[in-house]
Amino acid sequence: MVANFVLLLTAGVLIGCGVYLLLERAMTKMLMGLLIAGNGANLLLLTAGGGAGAPPIAGRDTTLTEVDADPLAQAMILTAIVISMAMTAFILALAFRQYRYRTADVISDDAEDKEVAARPTTASAAPDHDASDDPDTGRITDRGDDFGPESFEAPVKEDTP
């Protein structure tokens, strides 16, 4: 099989541009990068499917070429195009909604992520730390919480006649 270098180069450029746009901070650029990378993947699948050939029909007597076309790559690309169309409609709806509420689409850093990154690495600073745990090692101590079936309220029993 001889691959078309121009198609491979175009697929690589599309995927590269899509990844570059995915790494941007603007949401619309990220979403457009996702669409462009998807188109590059479709082109790569088409190239990997091989060259043109006779239609893959069972029981066909006359052949235009010696080789049948690979129907799997074409079916996968057709499915990907339909999914990409639906995703494009969803992205346009998101972009319109974002434009209606605010025009700036740059995604800022989350304040909670900054707090988590600034937290000390000791075991006592872990989010699942219990006040009764050892502050140095974070291990459970014998003075742990009084929590278990015996600490629950007793069930209400109705008087039956």
Automatic annotation (TrEMBL):
Residues 110-161 are annotated as: Disordered. The chain crosses the membrane at residues 6-23, 30-52, 72-96. GO terms for cellular component: plasma membrane. It is found in: Cell membrane. It is a multi-pass membrane protein. InterPro entries: CPA3_antiporter_subunitC (IPR050601), NUOK/Mnh_C1-like (IPR039428). Keywords: Cell membrane, Membrane, Transmembrane, Transmembrane helix. It comes from the Bacteria. Its main location: membrane. Residues 127-146 have a biased composition (Basic and acidic residues). NCBIfam families: PRK07946.1 (NF005929). Belongs to the CPA3 antiporters (TC 2.A.63) subunit C family. This is Na(+)/H(+) antiporter subunit C.
